[in-house]
What we know:
The chain is α+β, with helices and mostly antiparallel strands. It has a 3-stranded antiparallel β-sheet, with no helix packed on it. It has 3 domains: 61-129, no CATH class; 153-270, no CATH class; 277-569, Rhopdopsin 7-helix transmembrane proteins. Helix content is 45%, strand content 12%. The radius of gyration is 47 Å and the shape is elongated. Helix 2 packs parallel to helix 10 (528-539), helix 4 (342-375) packs antiparallel against helix 5 and helix 8 packs antiparallel against helix 10.
Amino acid sequence: MNFCCWRLIFTLVILEAICSYLGAAAQATNGSVDLNLDTSGINPNGTVSPTSNEVLAATISTGIVSATKSPNESVDTSSLHPNGTVSPTTNEVLNTTISPAFESGSSATEAAVTLATNKFPAVEVSPQKAAEPADCSQREKYRIQPIAKDSSRLRKCCPHGENLDIYRENQSDSMCDSAVVNFEPTIITAVLFDNCIEDLEIPTALSYEIGNPCNSSLQYDDQEDAFFVLQDGSLLIIDKFGNESYTVEQNYCLDVDKSGNLFAFTCVTQVEEQIAFAKVIFVAVLMLISMPCLLLVSYLHMTLRLLRNLHGLSLSLMSLCLASGYFVHSVVHIYGISNTGFIGYVIQFFILGYFFWYFCICFNVLLNVWYKLPCCIQLTKFWAAFNFACYCILAFTGPATIVAMTVQKGLPGMPSYFLQGLTESIRDSQRYFIPPVSTVLFLSFLINIISFFGFQRINGYVKAEGTDLCRNNERFDQQKYEDVKKDAKCVSLLGIIMVISWLLEIVTFYSGSKSNYLLLCDMVNGLQGVWVLLIFLVVRRRRTIILRWWYDRGSHEIGGTELQSLSKNNNPT
């Protein structure tokens, strides 16, 4: 009995020593893992029953508890969440501890499980709220992202070097004037997420596209709204009042007013095409029909020696310019090619060249009837070539200058065919096509009137003085006079058709209706090549010269009398 008592006392002493050692170790490390055990299965002799070791519901990571915490802080393991965080609602002390002991070099690992008879100082961890991400990486990315392309453009309302002058509720009433403030919008490269925008801070530059594509529009002011241009040329509009929402607009235009405020106009309704695609194809086919007629006129006046004078060469280049412009214009609309940029300027150059060459033809008639015929001047080949070179300079530098001004302003070069000036910006885009053509036609009309009085003057001299009109002992060239008179009649007839066609084109462009008569106006324009063929090869009765060239083609031998007649009629002027 005494032996059992001494054995119990010895066991208690050992337990007290072990508990003191474990308490000191817990205070020194403050990083041990404390687990709860079910104590209902512990036997009186201090051993643990195998059936009482139940698995804990929560696992505590050893990194949750910080080693810098004070020893008097405690952890409540009853409120641990499965993710390892500690709930701060309770602060209880663990009464049961599992202390694993490992023996190195042994084939098995034994765990000594003891009961703590005192309360251990535990560690208490304050809850830390998870910080929100600094970027948009945890948000869903939009499926359609802005991607910069070669065709990406920033749309400016007014031409280069101009600002908004008057703006109203509807941008179609806006006016542009000379620039006072530089236009420098903010262009960003961004990635779009759900209610989140990530700016990549990559410098981006975009070319400008001039004009407003809207029939009616909404107006945004940078004083009240925030908007930026994305790398693909679209407009990013951000809600400045904390909703974190934004919209992306593809149809818009930007510009600044005289005070430097930046305005954005987004479309409520788009500008619709003047005519449907089927009608566009129909008029384009008419242009393609005119093209071989114009090429035939150009070829005959360059090839036939009797037609290759100043008038014939000018008429040939006039027809060639219109044929080239019609061909490119029709191909662009039939195949849906973008008409902005270089190809639009090419079409503008050729169509303007057609009207400038007509002006040169009218001026050549005026020069003959007021100077060459009354003074009985016969130009040599050198002076005839110099005269033609002057016509070329005028007919090519005029359109080239206008196209250069169009490029400098950033306006599209596409002529007004198939367009309808529904907005101020569309009407403004034709400032270097409609006004120049109208001016050239008006000047040509005045020249034709002056030429008419010149013919009346010559007829009066001929009736009064017979054929002795010249005062330099030169005989008046009656045959040349008749040829110039026929040329003047053809040029005047073509001028009437051109003026009527142009008036119909202006009606088509400035009309806001969608009536079918607008298609008739475009059809008259598309058939101008046919009119040129009929006037200069049929009405002029050139059939004899053309048929003679067609049947002979150099094989016909010309006699002396016929040679003298042809030489007399072969005048380069």
